[in-house]
Design goal:
Elements lengths: L1 E11 L4 H13 L3 E6 L4 E7 L5 H9 L6 E11 H11 L4 E3 L3 E5 L14 E5 L11 H12 L6 E5 L5 H8 L4 E6 L2 H13 L5 E5 L12 E7 L2 H13 L1 E13 L3 H10 L2 E9 L2 E8 L3
Parallel strand pairs: 6-7, 8-9, 8-11, 9-10, 11-12
Antiparallel strand pairs: 1-3, 1-4, 2-3, 5-6, 12-14, 13-14
Helix pairs in contact: 4-5, 7-8
């Protein structure tokens, strides 16, 4: 799988820099970028799968940037997974403790290194890619939402599974069966690997995009998707088609300003908002299936 790495150079007043970074990340997400890394003070790095990158959309977003007192330029680099991921695998990531109920930790570290409650559920992640380690706000908001739901005996669909964190959490919280898919072959392999090291046996992973859904048998009690806004809007009708009459849909991967677009689309499909979370301008929506 080939990736695009964009190094954004943001020139603005220091008081506007963080706001500009947040707005730029939101715009870049809608052009196909999946993950971001703040490097130097005025720089932001974005990572996108090459076949999902829309340069015209990125250029238009920068042209129409809502803050006018800013200059944004960028340089693009084509990379292979293995080229930019080696340093990530060496460094790993710090453990993420979510409400003292779930601990997401680097599989290269022994669980005994961490002091946790006996009731805390450990999830080991061997992150073959720098996406989906649990460090991102969107992942944490979905996991927090799962903790609020009754998953016992439920059937769960994970759309765009990344490293499989959300499916693993759902399984360990009592889900009867988890089905996941991702367009990235590395993510599919990584999710299967992480299921194995966490001894999760009720997770099936498919390679593909939202069209995979039509080939999956049965319906789901919970559907969750941590993807960018444009894909959520395009695939929401596919999610709806495989939801039970009272099923729950959890969406994240977008910014607060995107909420009206998503709730409008959801309402047109008979999906009613029953909750939301926000964190550093990222958002998570909880939607309930209703009869039209």
């Amino acid at each position: 799988m080939k990736y695009i790495v964009a190094d954004f150079d943001i020139r603005c007043d220091a008081s506007l820099l963080q706001t500009c970074k947040d707005l730029l990340a939101g715009a870049a997400a809608n052009a196909g970028f999946e993950s971001f890394e703040e490097t130097e003070d005025n720089h932001l790095k974005g990572y996108a799968q090459k076949d999902l990158f829309y340069r015209h959309a990125l250029d238009e977003a920068i042209k129409d940037f809502p803050i006018k007192q800013v200059e944004i330029s960028y340089a693009l680099e084509d990379v292979e997974d293995k080229d930019w991921n080696a340093s990530w695998e060496e460094g790993g990531f710090d453990p993420i403790n979510i409400q003292d109920k779930i601990l997401i930790f680097d599989a290269k570290q022994p669980l005994g290194n961490f002091h946790i409650r006996k009731s805390t559920i450990p999830i080991a992640i061997d992150a073959k890619l720098a996406f989906g380690t649990g460090t991102h706000q969107t992942t944490q908001m979905i996991v927090s939402t799962l903790l609020e739901l009754d998953l016992e005996g439920k059937r769960v669909l994970d759309c765009g599974c990344g490293t499989g964190i959300l499916s693993l959490a759902a399984s360990k919280l009592g889900a009867r069966e988890c089905i996941a898919y991702d367009i990235d072959e590395w993510s599919v392999e990584n999710t299967r690997h992480n299921a194995e090291i966490n001894q999760v046996t009720n997770l099936t992973v498919f390679h593909g995009d939202g069209r995979v859904i039509s080939h999956i048998n049965g319906v789901f009690d919970i559907v969750m998707a941590n993807i960018n806004r444009n894909i959520l809007l395009a695939d929401m009708d596919k999610f709806k088609e495989v939801m039970r009459s009272s099923a729950t849909l959890i969406l994240s991967g977008f910014y607060e300003e995107d909420i009206p677009l998503l709730t409008e689309k959801a309402a047109s499909l008979g999906l009613e908002e029953t909750g939301r979370k926000t964190d550093d301008n990222w958002a998570c929506l909880l939607l309930q299936n209703r009869k039209l």
